[in-house]
Amino acid sequence: MMREMATETPVRDLIDFETREGRMRYLEQAFRTHLEGRVLDVGCDVRTLAKLRPELDYVGVDAGGTPDLTIDLEKSPRLPFEDANFDMVVCAEVLEHLDNLHQIFGELVRVTKKKLLISLPNCWTAARRPLSRGKGGIGHYGLPHERPADRHKWFFSLAEARDFTRAMAQRHGLRILETRVSEKPRPILVRALRRLRHPVNEHYLNLYAHTYWVLYERADSR
User: Fold this and answer.
1) Which CATH superfamily is domain 5-218 in?
2) Helix, strand, or coil (residue 99)
3) pLDDT score of 11
4) Which of 10, 70, 142, 191 is the Cys-Cys partner for 179 at CB 3.0 to 4.6 Å?
């Protein structure tokens, strides 16, 4: 049974990530105080976080872009690092691209000795308009004429992302330190009308929020 998302009281941020760099700039600002020591960035693309925080002992891995280490997580599902090798592991907008996301989540937990930060998209918000209009496509899905280099492998709502992250916390002995919900900026009147139409917080967020952020801490890190 779904629980009311308001019981978790996530931080609400009105922001639009137009680029991957913009997403990482938000991450650095929102979670600045937790980014310290040795940091692993899984899905680093062009190492934006390292450029924003050059003082970090940073390692970036990805299948493309300009990582420190090139890894295809579906072909090499074990991260090539020792247990508890990093103070902080970051994995932003990556898990939804992987068939083996449950296994990789376990790897993220294995290699951190303190904290883990992940983000997941709300797939429902991208589908809302094309479904209501009966035409168009949904980003990262569809049926392209040629096999894409990458795509989303899972389709889920924000509530499902929340329930998944809670279940992973219980499975892997993690504490949830902070959650954030990102929503694209809209005029106050538009947001108010949406609230009137969808007064249940969970329903509203499933339709209009676009990213769910979770900061974990290992229960054995203190």
Assistant:
1) Vaccinia Virus protein VP39 (3.40.50.150)
2) coil
3) 83
4) 10
Q: What does the radius of gyration of the chain's CA atoms come to, in whole angstroms? A: 18
User: Strand pairing partners for 61?
Assistant: 42, 69
Of all helices (H) and strands (E), which one includes residue 216? strand 209-218
> Which residue, chain included where needed, has tokens 């790897």?
107
Kind plus residue range of the DSSP H or E element containing 214: strand 209-218
Closest CA to 53 of 77, 24, 15: 24
Q: What is the pTM of this model?
A: 0.93
Q: What are phi and psi of 117, to 5 degrees?
A: -120, 125
Whole-angstrom Cα distance, residue 220 to residue 194? 42
**pLDDT 10s digits, 91-116:** 999 999 999 999 999 999 999 999 99
